[in-house]
Amino acid sequence: MELQNTVKEALNALYHHPDDAVRMQADRWLQDFQRTIDAWQVADNLLHDTSSNIETLIFCSQTLRSKVQRDFEELPSEAYRPLQVSLIALLKSFYKGPPKVRTQISLAVAALAVHVQEEDWGDGGIVGWIRDDMNSHPEFIPSFLELLQVLPEEVFNYKIAVRPDRRRAFENELASRMETAINILTACLSINGLVEQVLEAFASWLRLRHRIPAEVLASHPLVLSAFSNLNCDVLSEAAVNVISELIHYSAVRGSERVSSQMPLIQAIVPRIMSLKAHLRDTSKDEEDIKAIARLFADMADAYVELIATGSDESVMIVQALLEVASHPEFNIASMTFNFWHNLQIMLIERDPDVAHGGEASKEAERIRRLHVFRPSYESLVLLVSIKVEYPQDYTDLSREDQKDFMQMRYAVADALIDAALVLGGDAILKILFMKLVEVFNSQKNHLTDWRPAEAALYSIRAISDYVSTAEGEVMPQIMALLQKLPHQPQLLQTVCLTIGAYSKWLDAAPNGLSFLPSFVDILVNGMSFEETAAAAALAFRHICDDCKKKLCMSLDGLFQIYQRAVRGDGPLKVSPEESLHLVEALSMVVTELPSEHAKKALEALCMPVVTPLQEIISQGPAVLGQKPARDLTVHIDRLANIFRYVNHPEAVADAVQNLWPVFKAIFDIRPWDTRTMESLCRACKNAVRTSKTLMAVSVGVMLEEIQGLYKQHQQPCFLYLSSEVVKIFGSDPVCANYLRILLESLFNHTTFLLTNFQDFTSRPDLADDCFLLASRCIRYCPHLFFQSSIFPSLVDCSMIGITVQHREASKSIMSFLSDVFDIGNSSQGKAYISIRDSVLIPRGPTITRILIAALTGALPISRIETVTYTLLALTRAYGLKTLEWAKDSVSLIPPNAATETERTRFLQALSDIASGSTMNGLITPIEELSEVCRRNRSVQEIVQGALRPHEMKLVST
């Protein structure tokens, strides 16, 4: 009683106390209470207490539902029956009570049914029990109907902590009782006021697919009731749900199922088609229109294979879908977009079924179908392209509404792409161009309202990838029109992006060069305004990329634009991030220069970037050390992009050698500054990647620098720079001795820093880059890696960090281990198998144990695929040894966590892999062991306690 009163007091504080701190404290206490064993009895008592208020009832019903779902195994077996009796009593007592409470109790009863055996409910299982109790106590029918509704839903509720075998058995139990459930629901149809509830329950049972023949369903009273309720003045939500489920139930996936489902399809389609007139009925509530549109969209998605045949009936359905797409509310119109996408795939990518004939017949049928649907896609283009027009009050919209509008435009762009794949980009371009011309004509060439023109241009830009570079009729006219448009911000932004989108056309078109000067002027103008600078800079990059050969002759003018943007002292409003587009743009143009001119151009490209760095350095170490990182990285990031995009290896190698004093000064003064070091290492990495072996001289001094700095400052970026060097120079025998010294220094120091799990948790970035470098060594210099003392140290280090929660670090560690396990798969790696085995076999039992711990809960469920791959790589490498290690590990899992059968299936899957079987079909037992061991917190803690002792003894060498 005292604990019950405490719960009431905590709830009162949670809902009514004026102090936020007190409310938070009450909330934490209640959450902790829900996890206790006492919560069972207290929640049950308070639910049976007629004096409990609504807040107490809701909390206790939620608690009891959660306990049954997640913590059922806490209870001794003799408590099952009293719990069942109590829940049934509560279900009956709340038949007229608060709906929220009744729903929670219904869910608790359904969860109990998932846990316990069918016979615990009597001969007919829980469905038979519901039938018998409804006959005996008709006054409780509303409660029983709600229970009947949630039962099939709980089959797919993975919050219920039940073993996979039991979940499958429960689904089969319900399937075998489906006829009984349907009969119950049919009998309840005649009870006044319950039709909506009956239909909702029927929809729920339909989710257990294909248990009733289609011809039976087509004329079933429940289905006919749903059909009739579609014609009510107020549309029945339950009827819509039933018909939606019937559509999914009869969905056509492959010609072999069409005939079996045709009776139901033939009943559904006419009923939905009869609702077409309602789509334009202004007297209809918007929610009703949305429900009707949903039925049309569901029908089209489910029967797209039939619709794609191009029959007369198909065309009628597609016309109805166009009615939906024409609705002014986008959330209604967009319901059809998935259908248009799927139909496009059927028309373009799938071979049509042809009873007789070969490829010629298939191609003829494909052409016929495309011809049938061309008018529909043409209409779709006209309907959706107007929806991207900016609303007049756009600037007054909230930030969230503006974001939604932009998302809507992206969705329309996707729909236009689907149409372009069916019609061809050139055909759609003509349609959209006519819209643009109409805008000009309607406003007599003076765009007083920019929005329609912007919408047409946005659509034209969306299909740019599908317009032929040889298109010579419409594109020149569009390009000419772009130069006449006013520079209103949103319109100018779209103009800039359109120029960038058609940069390939500009390069290929015979008259493309004539447009470039005016377009560059437009883009420079766009960079002069904050609202359009990003779009203009991006478009500038695109035209320099695709038209670089044409622009080489205009390099001086481009350099002037570049310098103004990079220096930031002119009218251009390009941000430092956006200026990187211009850096890349000029770098790509410089790439097209002959080698004899490239070096000078590269120097000019670097000069406005390097000069500010030299000025800072010239002021002395104190100034350089105190500058904000941003003052340096803004310039170094630009150098990084120059070295990446200027594809003149010798010129880049010379530039780095000349700039090394600048780099060294920054390395020496700011090695503690992570952001600056990352930027500088990225620049060096890009230079190494571009220049490769031509950078040999600079690489030597560069690595000597970072080798010394790493011991003091442990910057992870030093490791990823070394990783790029290993890729380029790893196989070079001239560099072997130097690289061995470098790698041993870096790895020895890293393993010294990562000696326990807490080190991995606090420095996951270091672990990530360390093991990425190790994997790179395995691929490019195994002769240095495996024959070094660092190999066993890294394996020991990896074992400590496998279960680190940081996703990338954990992934890198397991990728490293997989690479080690798989070394025998390559001809180059076979020479190191004996070294690998001497290190791994003594550690094999522990590695296996840690991997199984990771699989069963030490790592999030989202990592199962990575862990499984690593475990299977170990199994493939060591076969029966791994199986013995795994047997020893899973034997530690208590039998109440995983049964002998579940463990045996897991081990059999590993045995099959060890015997050379493919992974197909063998992943399920591994995933099910993971699921079983994670089914609730208590089980997960038991398993981890067994598999992950506090002190893991590692082999020392």
Give a description of the structure.
There is one protein chain. The chain is globular and about 95 Å long. The longest helix has 27 residues. The chain is mainly α.
Write the layout of secondary structure elements.
Layout: H1 2-16, H2 20-34, H3 38-48, H4 54-70, H5 80-93, H6 99-115, H7 125-136, H8 141-153, H9 164-176, H10 178-188, H11 195-206, H12 214-218, H13 221-229, H14 237-249, H15 258-273, H16 286-302, H17 304-307, H18 312-325, H19 330-333, H20 337-348, H21 359-385, H22 399-423, H23 425-442, H24 451-462, H25 475-482, H26 489-501, H27 503-508, H28 512-526, H29 533-546, H30 548-551, H31 555-567, H32 576-591, H33 595-618, H34 621-626, H35 629-645, H36 649-669, H37 674-691, H38 696-713, H39 716-729, H40 736-753, H41 757-762, H42 764-780, H43 782-785, H44 790-801, H45 807-821, H46 833-858, H47 864-878, H48 880-890, H49 900-914, H50 923-933, H51 937-947
Quick description:
This protein is an all-alpha fold. The chain contains 51 helices and no strands.
